[in-house]
Specification:
alpha/beta
């Protein structure tokens, strides 16, 4: 697994040994970041990123490679946490990347952190966890007023979010679907 664009293009990331962590494929990441480059003025540049169900951190590291200001990774598994820590050190991103060992569906009030402009969620497929995490992020004030949220899911599941989340775009990649939302 490699970073597909930006200043770390071609750099490899530590990969999971467990099938419980399913990184977003290089092809889907490249396509997603091409969409973001065209939809967001300046792409990821100068934006704070929240990577929920981070796994290896591939989405967040891709965002940092493409100019994101900072990334906070949320991952509750020990293996995922260790992979992200290894990747932060490998890429020299201490100071702009932070990991929280939390359940992404149970985010409390954000506290002193600034809210996030772009949120990635790549939960285990088919359990409605992405929707729960988005609602928890909104309730806990983790989201900037103009936040964009990206959910990766299996295309067979019906996604149910409150009306404050407006679907902006949808892309299909085999059995995977990527949905982009904005706040209304």
């Amino acid at each position: 697994m490699r970073i597909v664009g930006g200043k770390f293009k071609g750099r490899s990331l530590s990969t999971p040994s467990s099938p419980m962590i399913r990184p977003t494929s290089d092809r889907i990441r490249e396509s997603l970041f091409n969409i973001l480059e065209h939809r967001l003025d300046g792409g990821c540049g100068a934006r704070r990123i929240l990577d929920l169900f981070a796994g290896t951190g591939a989405l967040g590291f891709e965002a940092l490679s493409r100019g994101a200001e900072a990334v906070v990774f949320v991952e509750k598994s020990i293996e995922g946490y260790d992979l992200i820590q290894t990747n932060i050190k490998r890429l020299g991103l201490t100071g702009v990347a932070r990991i929280l060992r939390l359940d992404a569906t149970q985010l409390d009030f954000i506290g002193s952190m600034a809210p996030f402009h772009l949120v990635f969620a790549d939960p285990p497929y088919g359990h409605g966890l992405g929707e729960k995490a988005f609602v928890a992020a909104l309730t806990g004030k983790w989201l900037h007023s103009d936040a964009m949220l990206i959910l990766e899911e299996t295309r067979d599941i019906e996604i149910k979010l409150p009306q404050s989340f407006v679907m902006y775009d949808e892309r299909h990649y085999g059995s995977t679907i990527i949905r982009l939302y904005i706040l209304s």
